[in-house]
Predict the structure.
Amino acid sequence: MLQLYLPVLIFMVMGVVIGIIGPTIGYILGPRRPYPEKNAAYECGFDAFGDTRAPFDVRYYLVALLFIIFDLETAFLVPWAVVFRELGWQGMAIMGVFLALLTVGFIYEWKKGALEWE
């Protein structure tokens, strides 16, 4: 019985070894020539300004929520469409509930102003 797990164990060990060898070789053979500009904080091409612990604007989270809404919709609609005929009316009702929940999230985003760019 344990012989069946030997290929899995070999695969896991090889994965760990290969995962360690690459970065180790890069660390050993990589150049070490630090200079002030290389070690400076980088912020979109500008010099760092302000406190790094400043909270994000709530609009960032609204846009992230909007992305999740459309990403989930796409990820679940495609496989559902493939097996649509086999699911019958029950599958149609479940997808209707799912789309209704996504629509509620989209309306929330719309009312909060996430779709308005300044």
In short: The longest helix spans residues 84-112.
